[in-house]
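=== RUN LOG ===
request id: a7f3
mode: sequence -> structure
chains: 1
length: 254
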Amino acid sequence: MALIRRDNRLYPPPPRSINSYIVSHSWLCHSLARRVLSAPLRMDNNQSMRINFGLTSQELSVMRRLSGPEKIQRFLDYEIGYNKEVDGETCRSPRRVLRDRIAHCAEGAFFAAAALRVHGREPLIVDLSAVRDDDHLLAVFSEHGRWGAIAKSNYAGLRFREPVYRSIRELVMSYYEHYYNPAGEKTLRAYSTRPINLKRFDRMNWMTTEEDLWEVCEYFCVVQHSRVMPPQAERKRRRMDRRLYEAGMVGAEK
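=== RESULT ===
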């Protein structure tokens, strides 16, 4: 647009200058020539961390091949051994799981959540709480308004669930009949009411840290949980039948 100065004369607008930094680091469209001049965008370390989550190119390559929940579950089942903690308790990060090729239920759930995150999903965990038994963690995901889960377990029935469940509670209840201790008692009693998003632990680099993730596990103990049955029903000890008990142990690592 022309400029009108105090002498009432028209002057053309001054030429617009383009910062040399922008030219060399951005995408520009040259309208007269109708060509796009391109140059790579520079990212600072924080931007790179947000995109790669601190993972190495080799680690990202593995996770990018796990392009769906079924592939993640298969990887946990056949490429990752079950961690029986013979050398002491651990709570490995996804990086350590990839390196050591071993995981128990919490470590497997964290790995699955990280793999889901690499593919653009939220890293969500649901905690299953039991009596006279270990708790169990699920990496949950949603497809078409239905919930499914990925899990690492030495019990066959406590692993994958197809995304066909209408709510988290409905998903959790599918585990009840398969959740039992070595004595054959059905032990599931509660679950975290809402899925926990592991992004809240990004400050501690939960996907790549060499430290055990005890802080994450401790957080599951203080979040709100919902009962799977009324208190009066909990007093009765419910037992597994032998066939279902033995079916749940198929493939278990001794």
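=== NOTES ===
Residues 17-49 have pLDDT under 50 and may be disordered.
The chain has ten helices and 13 strands.
=== END ===
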